[in-house]
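Chain A, query sequence.
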Amino acid sequence: MVRVRKDVPATLRRFFFRLDGQLPAASVDITVRPVTSPNDYRLAALERIIEADALRRAGTLVMSMYISGVAAECMLRAYRKAGRLFDERHDLIELLRSCDLERLGVAGFRRLREPVQLAHLLWWSGLRFAHEGMARQRLRRMRAVAGRLPRAADFLKVRCNQLGEACREIVDVGAERWTT
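Chain A, predicted structure.
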């Protein structure tokens, strides 16, 4: 006989059944503390850029591009001014504008302008839903903005490398300038 626990939401009950069909004896807390501190964002950025590099080396280009952008976004959020409203959703240029110059420094801000502009051009949050053909189509349409490539070049690979390098620079600058 299967007992249904009242404290487990109906949508989650199916995930808590053991192989014998019974619910576990103890409640499982599946809540995770949200990312709240600048240090959380910094640590996430450092992890994501390593994962993006590994994905790129493995040839998973679209996901590598997405994770690279997430790493850059995390690092820029780590430098956001305290108390500032959270309006810059996935807009890297706005995130750069919202950075605390006292913590980042003017030199750090200047070093970030070019890589942020390139990352803003090549990355969009919808990459997480894109298949390779969709990503290629979008990148093909922006050829005039991003510049032409040699005819034989795999432009997805080239753009993935460009985005990865730009995001790596954003994360590196943020890590260099970090003080706890």
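The chain has two domains: 1-31, 38-177. Residues 1-31 form one domain.
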